[in-house]
Design a protein that fits this description.
Blueprint lengths: L2 H14 L3 H13 L1 H11 L7 E7 L5 H14 L4 E7 L11 H5 L1 H4 L4 E7 L11 H10 L4 E5 L9 H5 L2 E6 L5 H8 L1 H4 L2 E5 L6 H14 L9 E4 L7 H18 L2 H29 L2 H11 L5 H10 L2
Parallel strand pairs: 1-4, 1-5, 2-3, 2-4, 5-6, 6-7
Helix pairs in contact: 1-2, 1-3, 2-3, 2-7, 4-12, 14-15
């Protein structure tokens, strides 16, 4: 094994032993050091499969970060060890994450029963990143029984969280026409729990009525999707939300659906890594002089777009 592999393997073992600093370093290397990913994930793989993941999604400004902070406070009261992956938008200038989520959760992060990590979301959409599934596995192997995944808040395109999470929470606000957006985005079909945050505002009752009407008319399944009211800034309703998460977990365990959710997560993880590798290879292929000539041929009308695409694919 190379020096890189030995170092990464030793770091992974420290993570599995519960060393918090090692977990932080592993997460950093997963994001920044593609060469170490294979060794790191191979070392932690036998220790995964125990954590329960909860995805929290919704439009920007819905109060997801405040809600996650309130859930952490409630988790500490119930002595739940909980980790958070907060997906932040990539800065167009520095290409780094904007760490506002961690700042909003600061009240809980001093407790050793809480671990919060901000990560950069993939600019190609989905609300997550190729590293997110790897990070979830690292947290799982490190012994965190509850993992909350807060998406970046990109609206209708951020449905990858449904495949990453065992329970998906969709956060809406009154007065925004969110019930229409829920239908457009397909969130009505993927939400396991709806949360009307800022429920002390006008329009909350109307939004609740519309959601419950749409849910009643939708596909019937064994799980009855609840619609809960919260005022996260005042820590109201988060106890009921945790109860709904527990109920959904028990339903999945009893119905045999949880293993299928875990398989869906693994498929997402594989697809994310394949997609990232293909984009790297595509960028390299497009920089070749022969591709520039091909682009010029398309511009002159001498080659068709399907022909050009096939030529590029042949280089991958």
């Amino acid at each position: 094994m190379t020096t890189l592999g030995t170092d990464a393997g030793a770091l992974a073992l420290r993570l599995v032993a519960g060393e918090r600093a090692a977990l932080a370093r592993v997460l950093t290397r997963l994001e920044r050091d593609p060469a170490a990913i294979a060794v790191l994930d191979a070392a932690i793989a036998p220790h995964t499969g125990r954590a329960y993941t909860v995805g929290i999604t919704g439009a920007p400004g819905a109060g997801k970060s405040t809600l996650v902070g309130a859930l952490l406070d409630e988790a500490l009261r119930a002595d739940r060890r909980t980790a958070v992956l907060a997906l932040d938008p990539r800065s167009p200038l520095t290409h780094g994450a904007i760490l506002g989520d961690r700042m909003r959760m600061e009240s809980a992060t001093a407790d050793p029963r809480v671990f919060v990590r901000s990560m950069t979301a993939d600019p190609h959409g989905g609300g997550l990143s190729a590293t997110t599934p790897l990070a979830v596995r690292a947290l799982d192997a490190a012994g965190w029984p509850w993992i909350l995944i807060e998406t970046v808040g990109v609206g209708q395109s951020e449905l990858d969280v449904v495949e990453a999470a065992a329970t998906t929470i969709v956060v809406l606000n009154p007065g925004w026409g969110d019930e229409v957006q829920a239908v457009k985005a397909g969130l009505l079909e993927v939400a396991d729990v709806f949360v009307i945050n800022k429920a002390d505002r006008d329009g909350a009752a109307v939004l609740r009525y519309d959601l419950e009407r749409l849910l009643a008319a939708g596909p019937k399944g064994g799980w009855r999707v609840p619609v809960l009211d919260t005022v996260a800034s005042e820590r109201r309703g988060t106890g009921e939300l945790w109860a709904a998460i527990d109920a959904h977990r028990q339903f999945q365990e009893g119905s045999g659906a949880l293993p299928l959710r875990r398989q869906r997560f693994s498929a997402l993880a594989i697809r994310a890594l394949v997609d990232r590798e293909l984009r790297v290879r595509l960028a390299a292929a497009l920089s070749e002089p022969s591709i520039a000539a091909l682009v010029a041929a398309v511009e002159r009308g001498e080659r068709s777009l399907p022909e050009a695409s096939a030529a590029v694919l042949s280089r991958l």
